[in-house]
Design brief:
This protein is of the alpha+beta class. The chain has nine helices and 24 strands. The strands form five sheets. A seven-stranded antiparallel β-sheet has the order 3-2-4-5-6-1-7. Strands 17-16-15-18-19 form a five-stranded antiparallel β-sheet, with no helix packed on it. Strands 20-21-22-24-23 form a five-stranded mixed barrel. β11 and β12 form a beta hairpin.
């Protein structure tokens, strides 16, 4: 938001109501003549004084309702000489010469089906409001430009802000259409949940794309810069059933695939339903979508980032449950301590609810000690504190661990190195014998190598231990990182000081 804002208008400020709307006798439509030219010269004066010769298009719009039969919502956009190559040059972030920017202002003054903000970041901005009010922003006060505006027969008033400033607060989400997003789309297509993509390349104008595993990359490559995206379920091939859900009245949006493969969409009201049904009856697949925001819920949405991966488009998408989950996951980071409640206990680990999302703690991360089942460590509904150790945004997975918040009891055992203890044999394996060196269930076990159990001479072996036997052993080494304890039976009778 620029600190200096001027309202430029041909109308006397005295002719306004309490809401700032013009109430005087003048026509509020452009005269396509001297008044319009004066407005453009005033905008040019502000831009030149700010040293601006190029402007960036922000939040471009065309009329929002593409009525049935209007396959090209950009129809009536304005003189084709502004963008000779069509709307491909009119998108959020497009940089245009000052002269083209002035022509866009002209189209806005004329109400020619186009609107946008034109900006030079930190220095200049202009857009058109109701009743042909021009709002010019500047990083510095512009006395010469305001004087020039008055000399042109216009009024220039200083405001605190434009009443049409972009509102960026609220619960809207700007999820980037990055590699992780497209991997999510690919998986949704692969498992049959997703089938079409809505590309809102301008505010009020959309294109539809059929999604298959073979077309994903081509669809992605052809999207308009900074477009808003919405991923929807597959279209239905049951055309009669789709048309049978047309309401008795109101507006609907129909999306259908023609036999030549094109995906078309149109908004229709009750008067158009018969023509719509005739048009769609020969389609390969179709779907009806609500035009009401509360009922219009795609699978998930995104905003296309710039080539450097940064989302600079300021518009936000209506958040879906999936988008809210994504936003929550982006607020997490590895090493973060969170509080959750145990919701499920399985043989492989547990799930815990952390703010509406279920994160997984695998068996190795539940405890420093061995246990037979996770239910020995936690119980259903128990509140726990855990550390996030992994996040997979493309698969909506979070892994946690209880261990970083618990003291490793094996560290205490390192102080026992060199001491002799009596433990129970728990397991015999080809390389040796495991002995529990702690007097507790599931206590730490160490290994006595087979060679250590042999006698002084190979023809005089020691009696072979059996599971459950008590065995004197000396603790030779404790390695907490590798979770290994090395024991010796042969050295058990040596004085502790010799360890």
């Amino acid at each position: 938001m620029l600190p200096y804002v001027y309202r430029v208008t041909p109308y006397d400020p005295a002719d306004r109501d309490e809401h700032g709307h013009y109430t005087g006798p003048e026509d509020t439509h452009s005269d396509h003549g001297p008044v319009e030219d004066a407005c453009l010269r005033a905008v040019e004066a502000f831009a030149v004084e700010a040293g601006i010769d190029r402007l960036t298009v922000r939040e471009p719009q065309v009329p929002s309702l593409a009525h049935f039969g209007a396959e090209h919502p950009q129809g009536g956009f304005g003189p084709p000489e502004v963008f000779p190559d069509g709307l491909s040059g009119f998108h959020d972030g497009a940089v245009v010469p000052l002269g083209v920017g002035l022509e866009l202002v002209r189209l806005m003054l004329r109400g020619s089906g186009v609107w946008c903000r034109l900006e030079a970041e930190g220095a200049f901005a202009v857009h058109v409001g109701r009743d042909q009010y021009l709002y010019v922003g500047s990083g510095l006060p512009r006395e010469r430009s305001t004087a020039r505006t008055r000399a042109l027969g216009l009024f220039a008033e200083r405001l605190d802000a434009s009443p049409y400033d972009l509102e960026t607060d609220g619960d809207g989400i700007r999820r980037p259409g990055d590699d992780a997003f497209w991997e999510r789309v690919r998986r949704a297509v692969d498992d049959g949940r997703a089938g079409v993509l809505e590309e809102m390349y301008l505010e009020g104008a959309s294109r539809w794309h059929r999604l298959t595993l073979d077309t994903l990359e081509a669809v992605r490559a052809g999207l308009a810069p900074r477009a808003r995206l919405a991923v929807w379920p597959e279209l239905s091939s049951a055309i009669d059933a789709v048309l049978g859900t047309l309401p008795a009245e109101g507006l609907v949006e129909c999306v259908w695939q023609e036999q030549d493969g094109r995906i078309l969409g149109a908004v229709a009201d009750a008067d158009d339903f018969r023509a719509l049904a005739h048009r769609v009856s020969g389609a390969d697949a179709a779907a009806l979508l609500s035009v009401h925001a509360d009922d219009r819920v795609p699978l998930f949405t995104a905003v296309m980032p710039d080539s450097d991966g940064v989302v600079r488009a300021r518009w936000r998408t209506e958040p879906t449950p999936d988008d809210r989950q994504w936003a929550f996951l982006t607020s997490l980071h590895e090493g973060q301590i969170v509080t959750g409640r145990v919701t499920h206990i399985a043989n492989f680990g547990i799930y815990a609810d952390i703010g509406g999302f279920e994160a997984l703690i695998n068996i190795p991360e539940l405890s420093w000690r061995h246990f037979s089942h996770p239910s020995e460590v936690v119980s259903m509904g128990q509140e726990i504190r855990a550390v996030i150790i992994g996040i997979d945004m493309s698969r909506d997975r979070v892994w946690m661990s209880l261990k970083p918040l618990l003291e490793d009891p094996m560290l205490q055992l390192t102080r026992q190195v060199g001491r002799t203890v009596v433990g129970r044999v728990t397991k015999i394996v080809p390389i040796g014998t495991f002995v529990r060196v702690e007097e507790r269930e599931h206590g730490f076990e160490g290994l006595v190598h087979m060679s250590d159990l042999a006698g002084d001479h190979t023809d005089q072996p020691l009696p072979a231990p059996r599971v459950g036997d008590a065995l004197r052993v000396r603790i030779l080494d404790v390695d907490p990182d590798r979770r290994r304890i090395l024991l010796s039976h042969r050295q058990a009778d040596a004085p502790d000081s010799e360890a």
